[in-house]
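Technical annex, item 7. During the second reporting period the consortium partners agreed on a shared format for inverse folding records so that results from different sites could be compared directly. Each record opens with the tokenized structure and is followed by the designed sequence. A conforming record, contributed by the partner at site C, is shown below for reference.
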């Protein structure tokens, strides 16, 4: 009996110690997280009711994440504008959307062929949308191109092309949309970046540089647009199971033409698209959609740079040996 009482007392002591840890150490971290989560849920429910009828312009809408975003916002009752270079593929996406059976009121998608590298033509494309719909509520800058090549083997023309499409095209299109948003005192610019826009990895110098630039642009723009009630959301996904690596450029500018194993095993475009919609409904400014490894890499880069540089140097050597074996 005495042993039982001692055992019970020990359990109570351990339980009290656990509660003490929870209340004094964990609570300051968990409580704000819970509060922000509750606020986010409330915002999401409120803004979802306002979403039907919103005009959403999506670049890169002919495939991959852009196509998934088109489905997600179309099913939410938005007036979707499909934009990309390949008009035939945009028409296919439009046809697929119209064939969907929904329980909400939907609107016939608008197809606008455009090339992000032709930056001088982008203001006219925006003007075309405004003439039809009268406004653009959400611009989703999703179109882009990737590269699979080390820095020394990448022709400068490839660096320029990647920066032109991923950064300058996005900036030009955003600037074309902003005046009407500012005038209406509402709107949102969404930029699909990458976790590689927060930390760089070997053989992605051109791509990472374009996404780093996008991060800086969004941070500045968000601050400047606050007084106009125009929101800016930066999305940094990890690997997504799309044809991004297949369509990537080599150092000479040719098509890479292969699916990376990391890309194939990435998140589904539909999952990422739904998370992006949730971020907009919750009025989030900067989100990362990635598994634990990229998140850890991000913190190592900022908290312990020497360790990060050592890890990346080892990765670069491993990739170099792998390429030589091929």
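Designed sequence (site C submission):
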């Amino acid at each position: 009996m005495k042993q039982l009482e001692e055992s019970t007392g020990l359990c109570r002591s351990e339980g009290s110690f656990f509660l003490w840890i929870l209340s004094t150490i964990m609570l300051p971290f968990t409580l704000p997280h819970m509060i922000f989560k509750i606020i986010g849920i409330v915002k999401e429910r409120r803004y979802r009711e306002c979403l039907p009828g919103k005009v959403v312009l999506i670049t890169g809408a002919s495939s991959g994440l852009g196509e998934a975003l088109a489905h997600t916002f179309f099913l939410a009752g938005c007036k979707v504008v499909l934009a990309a270079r390949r008009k035939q593929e945009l028409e296919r996406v439009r046809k697929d959307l119209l064939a969907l059976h929904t329980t909400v009121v939907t609107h016939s998608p608008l197809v606008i062929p455009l090339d992000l590298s032709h930056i001088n033509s982008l203001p006219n494309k925006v003007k075309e949308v405004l003439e039809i719909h009268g406004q653009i509520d959400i611009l989703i800058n999703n179109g882009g191109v990737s590269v699979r090549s080390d820095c020394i083997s990448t022709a400068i023309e490839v660096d320029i092309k990647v920066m032109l499409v991923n950064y300058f095209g996005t900036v030009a299109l955003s600037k074309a949309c902003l005046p009407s948003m500012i005038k209406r005192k509402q709107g949102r610019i969404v930029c699909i970046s990458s976790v590689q826009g927060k930390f760089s990895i070997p053989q992605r110098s051109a791509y990472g540089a374009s996404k780093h630039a996008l991060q800086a642009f969004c941070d500045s723009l968000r601050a400047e647009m606050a007084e106009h009630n125009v929101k800016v959301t930066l999305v940094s996904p990890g690997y997504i199971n799309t044809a991004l690596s297949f369509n990537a450029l080599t150092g000479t500018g040719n098509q890479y033409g292969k699916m990376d194993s990391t890309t194939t095993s990435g998140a589904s475009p539909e999952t990422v698209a739904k998370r992006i919609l949730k971020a907009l409904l919750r009025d989030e400014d900067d989100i990362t959609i990635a598994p634990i490894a990229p998140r850890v890499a991000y913190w190592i880069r900022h908290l312990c740079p020497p360790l990060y540089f050592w890890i990346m140097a080892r990765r670069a050597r491993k990739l170099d040996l792998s390429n030589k074996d091929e």
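Residues 4-12 have pLDDT under 50 and may be disordered. The chain has ten helices and seven strands. All partners now use this format for quarterly exchanges.
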